[in-house]
Amino acid sequence: MAEGWARASAAQLTVLDTFSFSSAGLEAHELNPRAVAVMAQNGVDISAHTSDVLTDEMLAAADLVVSVCSHADTNCPLLPAGTAKRHLPFTDPAQATGPEADISACFQLVCVEIRDAMAALIDELSANRQMSVRQDSDEPLFQQSDVEMQSQSVVYQGFLKVEKLHLKHQLFGGGWSERLERELLIKEQAVGVLLLDPDTDRLVMVRQFRVGMLWQPESPWPLELVAGMVDKEETLEAVALRETREETGLTASGLVKICDYFNSPGASTEKVTLFCAKVDAEVAGGIHGLEQEHEDIKVVVLPREQALQRVRSGEINNAMSVIALQWLELNQKTLQKSWA
User: Fold this and answer.
1) What does the alpha-carbon distance between residue 40 and residue 46 come to, in Å, rounded to a whole number?
2) Which label site among 91, 161, 240, 292 has the fewest CB atoms less than 10 Å from its CB?
3) Residue from 100, 224, 293, 315 carrying the catalytic annotation
4) Residue 103: what are its φ and ψ, rounded to 5°?
């Protein structure tokens, strides 16, 4: 389905000849007739597609490898130098059970999710290509292909995962760098949610212990957004809603994306996506979190202006909260209109 939607999205562009697509898995399977049927219902014919096994030759020819399930992401072979990788997690509809109507609904839901993700990816790749061939600047615009990965190994696997990389990269002055050794903290994508009650102009935030602030003068129980890791095959929106329930007991609605950003790209792979969502602050409060994850999370309700003042004073100084609250300051009126 991903290959079918990628081709369909690229067909809408004027630069179709710059893209080529192929799909394969770690194992070969027959085409799923439900997948073929739901794609046909959405106007894309994949009946001639085949199920192929991923080969070294396919990886060597690829500029970008996209995995769509956690098994493929975890077991993906080491990629050649210059080949980028992207993980887009989707629920596997082939695992759906129950009445046929429920299974069909699952296939349709995942089909639409893949369509939207492929459209966004093709738009991004197209924009990046146009940037890389700009003629209005002398500044080199390096890409993943300008990095030569020589080795990659796991040196620690515990609550966190650390890899050691040996690599070289292109230099702004020309030529290649010396062989570099870097340790890289591998973290799954994170999601943060700014919870706002538009009727009372109050925010719902949380406090919990953070070991990274243990030796700082500030309290290691900072005021934060609801947040969590994408550790299952679910959309970012689903993570935002789930984490809101787990950490506050509230039901969020009206999700609006704020931005994506990299938390510490000099040493970590962690990418953060921020949302703003609507909640009822009147029923917010208490201690929440998952016992099996040793979470002890206190809900804090405060006026929006008070939270912004704490950003100005430096009391709120974690990146996720600062970015989201500053965004709210700039976009409050537009947000209120979108929720009206």
Assistant:
1) 8
2) 292
3) 293
4) -65, -45
Comparing 81-90, 209-218, 250-259, 275-284, which segment has the lowest mean pLDDT? 81-90
Considering only the C-alpha atoms of the chain, give the largest distance between any 2 of them, rounded to a whole number of Å. 63
Cβ proximity of 256 and 338 under 8 Å = yes
Q: At what angle do helices 319-339 and 304-313 cross, to 10 degrees?
A: 150
CATH number of 190-339: 3.90.79.10
pTM over 0.85: no
Domain ranges of the chain: 2-131, 144-186, 190-339
Residue bearing the bigger pLDDT, 252 or 133: 252
What would be the CATH architecture of the domain defined by 2-131? 3-Layer(aba) Sandwich (3.40)
Kind of pairing between the strands at 161-169 and 147-157: antiparallel
Is 282 catalytic? The answer is no
User: Residue 60 pLDDT more than 90?
Assistant: no
CB burial class (10 A; 0-12, 13-18, 19+) of residue 93? buried
